[in-house]
Amino acid sequence: MTRTDLAMPETEAPDTTGSGLKTGSSLQRDLRTLRLLWQREMLRFARNRLRLAMGLVTPLVFLLILGTGLSSLGDGQESLRDYTTYLFPGVLLMTVQAPSLAVGVAIVWDRQAGVLRQMMVAPVRRGFLLAGICLGGASTGMAYGGMVLLVAGAANVPYHPQLLLVLLELGVIAFAFTSVGVLAAVCIRRIESFQVVMSLLMMPMLFLSGAMFPARGLPGWLGVAVLGNPLTYGVDALRRTMPGDGADLGGRVLSPQLWGWTPPVVLEIAVIGLAALLVLGIATRRFSRVE
C-alpha cells in the first residue's frame, strides 16, 4: 500500500506584523489539505486492483451462496422465499464496511512510517486532516457499494433511479464506518491490535444490525441490543429506500420500533450522520492530544 502519496501544501510564512495568519488563507490551506487527503485515498483505491477485487468477493459470496441457499428453503415458507432480496441491504453494508475501515489501517501504517508526523508539523488544523481522510474512506466505500448495486438484478431488486438514493445513504454509512476506524487508529498504535479490536467490534455490530434477520419481534436482550445498534437504522433505511417490494420478507413488517414508533428514513440517516460527526470530533480531540 502506498504510504507517501500525499504532498502536503506549501507552508505559508507567518505574518511578521504580529497579526497572525490571515483567516481566509488559513481556510484555503485547510481545504486544500482536505482535498489532497481525499485524493490520496482515491489514488490508493484506484491503484490497488487486488484489494478492489477482494473487497467485493466476501459480500457477493454472502449474497449468492447464503441468500440463494436460504431462499431455496422457501418452497413451503413464504418468509424465506425472497431472502436474497432481503439480504441485499446487509450485503451493501458489508461492502462499504471493509474499505472504510482500511483507512484506519492506513493511519496506523502512516504513524509507523513517520508520514503521520510529517502531516502533523504542517500548519493545518488537525480536524481537517481527519475529515479529509474520512471523506476519502467514505468515497471509497461508495465506489464499492456502487459496484455491488450494479448486480442488484441478481437479488431481484429492480433497476430504478431510486438506487441513487441508496448510494447516497451508503455514503453516509461509509463515513460513519470510516470515523470509527479513524478513532480506533488514533488510539491504537499497533497494527495487530487494531485489526483484532476492529474485528471484535464490527462483527457483532453487523450481526446485530438486522442485516440477516428482522429487527422487530426479537426476544429479550437480543431485541434491546439490536435496537441500541446504530447500524440497525442504517440497514433499515437502505431496505426501505430500495425499489421493489421483495425486501419485506413475505409481507412481514420488519422495521425497528421504539415504543411502538417507527423512525422515518430521514431521521435514521440523520442519526447515522450525527453519530459519525460525534465520533470524528472525539477522534480529532484525541488526535490533538496524543500526537
Textual characterization of the structure:
- It is a single chain.
- The protein has 291 residues and is mostly helical.
- The protein is 68% helix and 0% strand.
- The two termini are 23 Å apart.
- Mean pLDDT is 80; it is low at 1-16.
Query: What's the helical proportion of residues?
Result: 55-70%
- Amount of beta strand: under 5%
Secondary structural class: mainly alpha
Evaluate the radius of gyration.
21 Å
Please outline what is shown here.
With 291 residues, this protein is mainly alpha-helical. The chain is built from 10 helices and no strands.
What brief labels describe this structure?
mainly alpha; 291 residues; 10 helices
Topology overview:
Layout: H1 23-47, H2 49-71, H3 83-113, H4 115-120, H5 126-149, H6 162-187, H7 191-207, H8 220-227, H9 230-241, H10 265-290
Helix pairs in contact: 1-5, 2-3, 3-5, 3-6, 3-7, 3-9, 5-6, 5-10, 6-9, 6-10, 9-10
